[in-house]
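Thread amino acids onto this structure.
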């Protein structure tokens, strides 16, 4: 297939503080280190996909400010088609405040800003947006009605649809039949379905009309399930330093695999490798590995 990947999603500037441990309520930690990285789930996945060799274009919104210009410039320099990223004149570019501990675990608070200015007409009234698109992926850091609109148009244009339901929130039941692949982690699966048990959550999503459920399990790999089969694809063992964008590395690489016509199982193995490499590095977009790095990693861990 090897067609374009369209990312419909968020762009944020990440403000990251590293510390010995994550603070509890009321606690102040001294001597943390501070960094600024380009981020946002949509932008992270776009960079992840293009570094894996995908042809990527992105739809999103930033504010008319320095952060917005830096984010667009960074994506363009990485090789992402930024033609469809607009600028909002009233809202600031989205920002995320992130704390990362010594084990790579994190807490994140997002101020969405201009990400919420994306309109349904930006999707439905742009005649060239879906040209050449074989895979479309969206997350939930933009208005949910626009996610639904993007999936509706993608299905009309016969593109493969991927939903990364993060951060998890309540979704219309009308959206699920439009989703070919959904990639929740265990917490997101529980929040989406209300089921404490993974198998029960998978069954509920399939019953709602999702084509294939892929539950990401962190260091335990990923579980793929559809109406025909269920399989477990193991993860790779690495020493993690920052897990902030592991899910985005996974999703971007998985979409590239689908765009190249790989089977879902093989695409997940590719994605597991990309995620494993990403957690050994700091920052969201800076952590995304190249295709050569992933292929070498797979060769060494076959």
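Threaded sequence (302 positions):
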């Amino acid at each position: 297939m090897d067609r374009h990947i369209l990312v419909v999603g968020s762009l944020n500037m990440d403000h990251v503080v590293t510390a010995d441990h994550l603070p509890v309520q009321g606690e102040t930690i001294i001597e943390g280190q501070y960094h600024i990285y380009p981020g946002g789930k949509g932008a992270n996945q776009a960079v992840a996909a293009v570094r894996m060799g995908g042809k990527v274009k992105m739809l999103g919104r930033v504010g008319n400010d320095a952060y917005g210009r830096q984010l667009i410039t960074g994506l363009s320099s990485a090789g992402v088609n930024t033609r469809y990223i607009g600028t909002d004149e009233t809202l600031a570019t989205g920002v995320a405040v992130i704390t990362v501990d010594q084990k790579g675990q994190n807490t994140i608070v997002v101020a969405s800003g201009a990400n919420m200015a994306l309109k349904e007409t930006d999707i439905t009234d742009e005649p060239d947006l879906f040209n050449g698109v074989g895979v479309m992926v969206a997350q939930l850091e933009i208005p949910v009605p626009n996610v639904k609109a993007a999936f509706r148009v993608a299905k009309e244009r016969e593109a493969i649809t991927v939903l990364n339901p993060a951060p998890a929130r309540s979704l219309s039941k009308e959206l699920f039949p439009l989703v070919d692949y959904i990639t929740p982690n265990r917490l997101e699966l529980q929040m989406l379905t209300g089921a404490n048990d993974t198998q029960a959550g998978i069954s509920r999503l399939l019953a709602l009309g999702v084509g294939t459920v892929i539950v990401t399990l962190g260091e335990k790999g990923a579980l793929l399930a559809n109406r025909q089969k269920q399989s477990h694809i193991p993860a790779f063992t690495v020493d993690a330093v920052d897990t902030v964008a592991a899910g985005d590395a996974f999703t971007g690489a998985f979409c590239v695999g689908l765009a190249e016509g790989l089977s879902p199982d093989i695409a997940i193995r590719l994605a597991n490798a990309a995620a494993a490499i990403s957690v050994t590095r700091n920052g969201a977009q800076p952590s995304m590995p190249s295709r050569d790095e992933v292929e070498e990693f797979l060769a060494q861990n076959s």
